[in-house]
Amino acid sequence: MKKQLALLVVFIMFFVAMLPVQGFAQYDKALENAIAKVKTVINTDGYDKLNSSISVYDGKTTYNLNWSDSKGKLGNISVTIDSNNNILSYYKYNPSDYLSQRKLPKISKDDALANAKKFITKVAPDIAANISYQEYKNDTSVMAFDYQFFFVRTVNGIPFPSNNVTITVNKNTGEIENYQCNWNFDLTFPDKNGIMSLEDAKKVYKEKIGLQLTYRYTYIGDKADVYLVYTTPDYKAIDAKSGEIIQIGYYYTPVDEAAMKYNKSMGTGGSPDLTPVEKDAVKKFANIISEQKAEEVARANKFLKLDSNYKLNGISLYTVWPDQNKYTWNLSFSKTVDGQNYYTNVGMDAQTGEIKSFYRSVPYNEKSQPKYGKDESLQIAKDFLKDIQPEKFNQVEYTETEPQFKPLTTDQMPRQYSFKFVRKVNNAYFNDNGFNVVVDAVNGEITSYDFNWYEGQLPSTDKVMSPDKAYEIFLDKIGLQLQYITTSPVYEYIPDMSTQKPEVKLVYTRTPGKIVNIDPITGDLLGYDGKPIKVQDKASYTDIKGNYAENAIKILAEYDISLPGSKFLPDQPIKQKEFLYLLSRSMNYYMDYDLNDPKSVESMYNYLAPSGIIREEEISPDSTIQRQDAVKYIIRALKYDKVADIKGIYTIPFKDADKVNSELKGYVAIAYGLNIVKGSNGYFKPNDELTRAQAIMIIYNYLNVE
């Protein structure tokens, strides 16, 4: 063994010695140039360590550089630069920025945007001249460390969304923290000559793409529900020159409004006795067929073809989306014949034994050529569904989709076909319900099958608006946009991709950043929760001019930390639920509550109580609160309450310190020390009702604690 290892080492050394010296010298020189380029635009002073690596992908070379300091005080700087000196990414981490993080920014968004533009111009002037800033109404959280800005490549005045720049700016220092450039440098863009007009595109889009009445899932807690919308079938566009319909890929674009709602439910403590919910869970398991029975059912199924050579390797039981009350057995089988491995995975309804899905591997044999074309394979899929699911098959419609794989040459046939059958009820499609079937074009067998079926009541379609009316709303609220896109096929066997240059086309497609979820009754745009998207302007009040809290009210309103209504009523006592609403918004922006909805208010308390901010015995939503109680909630939010609870060590500098509840002296002292409360003329007035203006000042000061 040692002799073989020695011979291998000698061979490697001989092989390396035979490589041309200029090959290494070329990389040395290129890396030197890359480092020098980066240092002309990015300050690396103080960093005394550099790690580097080289990546070659798709015929393109990139250099990955990482600077750090040996003492660990400066953090690190990471840069990716290509062989043409294009800086593709930049990331800077400075631990001190995060240690001293304040919740309210020191740098305004406008100043941060100006810094972002200066940086792009500095590191990539050619790119900076060909991008446009996309301002979306993104939710801004005071908890965020930075501002994020998104720029889209623009050619001939037309956006090319798949090429873009994302950049983040620290909201306290104004420094660039992250820069990501997604850019194709060798594309050819067609001009606008001969393209159809927007008005003509609207007509073609309506006729050939249009909108589809569709059922969609949403969740209430852990329970699946269904709502009805008009939406676009999938990602399609109109070739602006030929008028043909083409499939386009998905690319990331920030969403204009927050469409995803976050609902958090909190559990309660149990007792040794089983609760009704726990008893119900046990009952569900009582109806589950045994492992042995599940295996018998699988082996008896004629479509699975599990002969005696197949061995059961594993079996597992789990709940599946979207119905958390139903269980599925998953069985894994395998066999080896003549050195070939065969695998079959089966998903089975654990209560009924119904086959819900399966996958059967087919060993590849290049000598075996496809015998079945698309039409023949589609008929095989239909016949299979008629046999295995005759009732449900009559409730689905075959949907033509873009082929997943294309042959390398026109004289080759695909080796498999994938077909989708969508559930259709009352002329509305349920894209998440139906069947997916894969047919092997070599032997005509079904190799993959799965279905999803919602058993609950579906919304009625009786009162939905016409497709024409929905399309008018689509054009008004979402609209079409002229864009550049790239198209490139995905092949069964990938050739040398460096020779494959993406083709750029001009298309009309839906405006990015909008959610195509139109309520078919009201015409509202819906979020993913099936509820209307609230596009609210920042709170603006008519009664705060000249008030001592005016500036704080306006600043917090920019972060949607505000109270509903056009009047703020600064001198009115604030209710407990209103103060805690402001506090919860400052702690977690994505927790949005409706103060007029008792269930929503209850959810807010369910969020705050487990955090220790308020205790069960203190909950009184509609009561007013005293100034000292407001301080108590703030100190708990800061997690200083254990220190505040220490007795006999605090001095309160207010003239009315003797009126402070003895249990809250530490809270008031800490709040004073942190400049959260300052008092008036030397008095704190701990038992006075807290006004809305005073509440805002406390929240504002809390968000400025260093």
TrEMBL record:
Domain of life of the organism encoding this protein: Bacteria
Name the UniProt key words of this record, in alphabetical order: Repeat
| Residue ranges occupied by any SLH domain in the UniProt entry | 536-597, 651-706
Q: Does the keyword Repeat apply?
A: yes
- A Pfam entry, by short name: DUF4901
User: What is the protein's name according to its record?
Assistant: S-layer homology domain-containing protein
